[in-house]
From TrEMBL:
Keyword annotations: Coiled coil, Signal
Source organism per UniProt: Streptococcus gwangjuensis
Region (Disordered): 30-49
UniProt-recorded name of the protein: Lipoprotein
UniProt signal peptide: 1-22
Length: 167
């Protein structure tokens, strides 16, 4: 049982770290490209106001509330807050699948599984703090972020399938 606990934590930790690394590299790319864009952007104030109004409209158009972890839902993210919500939904889906897989086994209602869930919640809380003011900002490098989320979802699902096969 300790081995399962260690494997679960290690897998979740690796996936969380890879997600953080991918997103932090996107932030660095955004910083360098934004300074390049500042030197190129000389447009009329009316154009700027129009763009700003469109951006505000997009941001206030509604809250992101994913009902599933399908490709379509993942591809619909727009802001970093949407990314965080989608990431949390993927993790919730993973735990739901894991709970179903562990039903009727010694791992059902395991303290180790609950400890892992609590640890994950803390990591998500820390991740939300890290994004802070960027939450409402449009995602830079959206294709890479979407790919990372899909890979994360697929890896977690594959892990549950492996557990099902071994139980």
């Amino acid at each position: 049982m300790n081995n399962v606990k260690k494997v679960c934590r290690l897998a979740l930790l690796c996936l969380s770290v890879s997600t953080l690394v991918a997103c932090s590299s996107l932030s660095e790319k955004t910083s360098s490209s934004s300074s390049e864009n500042q030197t190129e952007a000389l447009s009329s104030s009316s154009e700027k106001k129009g763009l700003l109004a469109k951006a505000k409209e997009k941001l206030s158009s509604g809250d992101f509330n994913p009902q599933d972890v399908s490709d379509t839902t993942i591809e619909s993210i727009k802001t970093y807050e949407d990314y965080l919500i989608m990431n949390e939904k993927i993790i919730d889906n993973y735990y739901t699948e894991a709970d179903e897989a562990f039903k009727g086994t010694v791992l059902e209602d395991s303290a180790a599984i609950q400890e892992l869930k609590d640890s994950t919640k803390k990591e998500m809380k820390d991740l939300k703090k890290q994004y802070g003011p960027l939450k409402k900002a449009p995602i830079q490098g959206k294709e890479e972020v979407i790919k990372t989320l899909k890979d994360y979802r697929d890896n977690l699902h594959e892990q549950v399938e492996q557990w099902k096969a071994s139980l």
